[in-house]
Here is the input.
Amino acid sequence: MSDTSRIYLQPTPIRIWHWLNAFGIVTLGLTGIQIRFPDYVNIFAGYKTAILLHNVAGVVVAASFALWFFYYSFVARNMLKLYVPSKDEVQKGLLRQAKFYLLTYFLGRPNPHHPTPQNKFNPMQKSAYLAIMFLLMPLLGLSGILLINIEPMRNLILMIGGLKILMAIHYLLACCLCAFLFTHVYLATLGRTAFAYIKPMWTGWEENESEQHETLDLTAPRPN
Amino acid sequence: MKTIVGIIMVTAFLGAAVAPAAAAASGDGSQLAIYIFLGMCALIIVVQLFPIFFMLYGLLKGLFHGKKETAEAPVEVVVDK
Amino acid sequence: MKIDKRLIILWIASLTLFGGVGVATLAAPDWMSGAPGWAIRFFLGYCGIVIVAQVFAVMGIIRRPEDSTVKNSRYRILPVLLLLVFVGLTPARAMQGSDCQGCHRDAAMVGAAFVVNPTTFDTTAHAEIGCPACHTSVGSNHPDDGLVPSKAGCQDCHTEVSREYAASSHYGSAACHDCHNPHQARGATAVSGHDMNRQCRLCHATDAVVERHLEWLPQTELHIAMLPCVSCHTAAQDNVITLYVVKRQKGANIATLEPASYVELQGLAKGKHVESLIDGNEDNYISLTELRLFNLNSKNPLRLQGMMTPETVTHDFRLLANRRDCSFCHASGPDARQSSFIALPQSDGSYRRMAVERGAVLDALYGTPDFYMVGSTRSKALNYIGAMIIAGGLVVPIGHGTLRFLTRKNRQDEKESDHE
Here is the structure.
């Protein structure tokens, strides 16, 4: 195993952001179900626990969103390059990637996209993450912040149309995120092995697909 | 440099997240769930920061043991972005 | 002694009129208020004088009318005397409220501390029993007699309530009248939730209350603002959703929404009943259509604000452990929050409720756009939409996963060829 066969794909702040998000969003989803359907679901002992946990997890996810935002826009400074698909990607890349997912994958062909630190996402990922990170997550987070502070932000809530409308926005956006989550987790297992895509998100290092695999030493010190 | 920036950012954001959470969780049994949740979050961060600790440890070791050991210190081979 | 036949007829007619009007006045004390009351009193006095005069005439004390000496009779002043006595006595008998308000409606006459606002008082339950029922010692010479009027104790009538209150944690700190003005007291459903809490704030400042509840209650400010204190701090029962009309005060964009007063609503109703602002067809029932029309009217400066208010109140102020369990209100499911009302202020300071169509608080968007009780007022339509979105997300893992499983051999070949 040589260092050159691996690429350092996910820097530390991004890995922290991702796993805080993962843990936080799952917690938010589970507590959210109990908050909306307390007469059917009682996962966490007591309604108040669910509410407080939902609030805390919401704040953690919002903070980690801010970490993501600041890292990409001020430290790595490649946010737009990573998340905004180019004209070429929209015109050809999307189709090529869709073809892979829907056809060539089943025939056993390799993924046409090879991630690099400057171009991590395939065109479909780019479009999906663009919508999720720049539209869905901010709106979900903002509606959540408003819902935590109903009384102090009453005027703002009324401008949106009222508490019930805010509630509906928050709920439907959360359903969208939940729907994305299933797809996201499933597609993450589409690598050479089920964990081939998940491992880099945890360790930061992605193995080159043409190399021999399963020899990664997780505990080895590595630069950041 | 980026490592240090990363550490500062993580500390700042975690602090910002924990402060209101700790304020919200007081009084009854619900705080336990919140501490477990925050504990898990902290664990994620600490585990993710392990490589940095190891690197710092390697640097310190290198400083104290002279040039012999510095050869073993990891070398940054790939662009970090 | 000869009695004139005409005199007897006059005598019987007068007696009938006097008795009839007297009985009618007693039966309906309201008649004695204002100008009509004085007319009735004069009429009664006149009849009385005629009757007495007839009696005297019959007894032959007064000579026949054709006798010219009657002019000089010392009895000539008798009718005037009788009139004075009668008019003097009438108010004492008819001190049924209206006479009191002759003076007590006016701060200039009795001083601000003793004013009883007739518009507010007249529609209370206490007005039905009248002023003398509680202020028994007030006689015809009031206030010249210099006596301090007596006041009935609340417990004289409200025995059960006083017993309940005596066992509460409030007892000893606040007397009945510290919270209830007997001249304004109304039933629980004729008072707005905001007005109920106004009494509490006389002692318990909002900031201090919020601070106390911050220790354990999520959304503290919201709960304190949107709930009558008695919902949790007494064993009050049968909570319903009551919607009040609130209005942004003029000239302030960031101003809080305050309950709209009767005068404000009357101005907006343009001569119609205030109810017509929401109840378009004036059938005393608010349908979902009427609610949506009201809420969607962008020119409408009014908004609906929902509170959870108790139908029946109690006076056993204490800390109830079960109210700390959020599920007491929140986890009961949508069935528990079906009945709601719209309460509008009336000219007398009370609130009148109109029933709202069942399920209005569950309407997805425009039933009650600014009212949501998490865990109990979710909309079924949104549940289904959300479920469909999530099901859409499951299409990829399930559909793609199935095909992936069926074609797994293709990729195994690939892997093996890699190794070779």
About this structure: The first strand of chain A starts at residue 6 and ends at 8. The radius of gyration of chain A is 20 Å.
